[in-house]
Specification:
Elements (H helix, E strand, L loop, with lengths): L1 H21 L28 E7 L5 H12 L1 H4 L2 E7 L2 H14 L5 E4 L2 H6 L21 H6 L3 E2 L2 E2 L2 E3 L3 E8 H6 L9 H13 L3 E4 L9 H15 L3 H8 L10 H15 L12 H9 L3 E7 L1 H9 L7 E4 L11 E4 L2 E5 L6 H12 L1 H10 L15 H11 L3 E3 L1 H4 L8 H10 L4 H18 L8
Parallel strand pairs: 1-2, 1-3, 8-9, 11-13
Antiparallel strand pairs: 3-12, 4-5, 6-12, 7-9, 7-10, 7-11
Length: 456
């Protein structure tokens, strides 16, 4: 009825206008014709759909992003924006590039990063991020997770989750284990080295290292840091409160030091391929998928990569927590997704908000998940998990998971830890010097931030 009333009113208005223009009926005996003006409606020029630039790390641009970017650009007229995703290398090298771009103002419209806390405490550039206020898609996420994950930071929405939750593990090729006669997964260090010996005996690489992509070398040692928190008797937050106030230091972390030493022990025992310093992350995926290597330590994103390149191999990859210690003391790391947020360099913030809101929505996240199954924070997204994902989800659900320390715990940068580990492997640093370098870099950054806990 309302629609009919609107139409009737419109018709009446048009009729009244027509009558006003024509006046009373013309006197047919008059010799002077009445001239009427005709109004021609010229259609407005089509509005150009804005193209928004986005920056992410190469390792984060996988099948999910490819599928979603294609969908967005094919439906840009309907969505009201296009997306141009730029990529840079990950690890400490990529982080330095991001810091430099914030410093110079050479920023994209949208950035995918470790989140607001990282930008605040380690880039010192939170003033160059836009508070997005609130978005309709927020209703599809757990509010506490957005808060605890730092997407809402200091009461402001600086980012939304993008990508899957990743879990750290030791990924293994089931065929290699079967060929080596391994019937049970290792639950402590002695059992793990015994597994390595059996794989080595059949002429395969027991444990693959991809040192050319130095960020991957850190993964092994994260399990030692988990034990550090476990042995402290503190909660995760209490532990990091002490680390962030100069009361606890990397050089005092005995379990962490032990994990670094063990990561070299496997090299010294010949469990790692000789070319590990020049071999890449991509080569590691091939070696694990094709059964050239028995195991590879990384996070579940490596399964995403394998699914893209060797889909037939995914069902043959399993995972377990790297057993540096006794079974009850081994924890996986849970790494929440990175965040997409808007920078102050964006000239069309409203278009960027539309983009972030859509990308965060269940529709967009399902497109992403269909191309890249995993563990998603959007409550309405359904994804089938690979066996390796499920293995580590089971560990997490059993209460054996901690937040990944490098992205969420520390307030201050600790230097190029991945490069320090490389230095240790080639003999130019000791374990003690690796940890001392991290403490020195932390102190330097804390002093630069005028933190009174580091006042001389």
């Amino acid at each position: 009825m309302k629609l009919k009333r609107i139409i009737s009113a419109a018709l009446c208005a048009a009729l009244a206008a027509s009558m006003a223009a024509c006046g009373a009926p013309a006197d047919t005996s008059a010799s002077t014709p009445v001239q009427q003006s005709v109004s021609v409606s010229v259609p407005a020029a089509p509005t150009e759909v804005p193209t928004l630039t986005m920056l992410t790390f190469t390792e984060w641009y996988k099948d999910g992003w490819k599928a979603l970017e294609n969908y967005i650009n094919e439906n840009s007229d309907e969505l009201g924006f296009k997306l141009d995703i730029q990529q840079i290398a990950g690890g400490s090298e990529g982080e330095e590039v991001v810091k430099a771009r914030f410093a110079t103002g050479d920023l994209p419209d949208i950035i995918q990063s470790y989140g607001a806390k990282w930008i605040d405490t380690q880039v010192n550039a939170l003033d160059k991020m836009v508070d997005m206020g609130s978005l309709a898609s927020e209703a599809e996420y757990d509010a506490a997770t957005l808060e605890e994950g730092g997407y809402r930071y200091n009461g402001k929405l600086y980012g939304m989750p993008m990508d899957t939750t990743n879990l750290l593990g030791c990924f293994y090729n089931k065929d290699v284990f079967e060929e080596a006669g391994i019937t049970e997964l290792p639950t402590n260090w002695d059992e793990f080295t015994a597994v390595c010996e059996k794989i080595k005996a059949i002429g395969k690489t027991p444990l693959y290292y991809s040192g050319s992509d130095s960020w991957t070398l850190q993964c092994f040692t994260h399990f030692g840091f988990n034990k550090e928190v476990f042995d402290s008797g503190l909660t995760y937050n209490e532990f990091w409160d002490e680390m962030n106030t100069n009361k606890r230091h990397y050089s005092e972390c005995a379990d962490f030091a032990d994990a670094i030493a063990r990561s070299k022990e496997v090299i010294d025992k010949g469990y790692v391929q000789e070319t590990y310093l020049s071999d890449t992350y991509d080569m590691a995926q091939t070696a694990l998928a094709q059964g050239e290597a028995g195991m590879y330590v990384n996070a579940t994103w490596v399964v995403d990569e394998i699914a893209s390149k060797y889909p037939e191999a995914v069902e043959n990859i399993g995972a377990f927590v790297l057993p540096l210690y006794e079974d009850t003391e081994n924890y996986t790391d849970s790494s929440l997704p990175g965040a997409i947020g808007i920078t102050t360099a964006c000239k069309d913030v409203e278009a960027a908000k539309r983009a972030v809101d859509f990308i965060s929505s269940s529709k967009a996240q399902q497109i992403y998940a269909d191309a890249q199954p995993g563990i998603y924070l959007n409550k309405n997204v359904k994804a089938e998990l690979s066996p390796a994902h499920q293995d580590l989800v089971d560990v997490m659900q059993a209460g054996k998971a901690m937040a990944l320390w490098r992205g969420t715990g520390n307030n201050y940068g600790y230097g190029s830890y991945d490069k320090y580990v490389q230095d240790y492997y080639v003999g130019s640093k000791t374990v003690e010097q690796v940890l001392a370098a991290m403490d020195e870099e932390t102190a330097k950054n804390a002093v630069a931030a005028n933190d009174p806990n580091w006042a001389e």
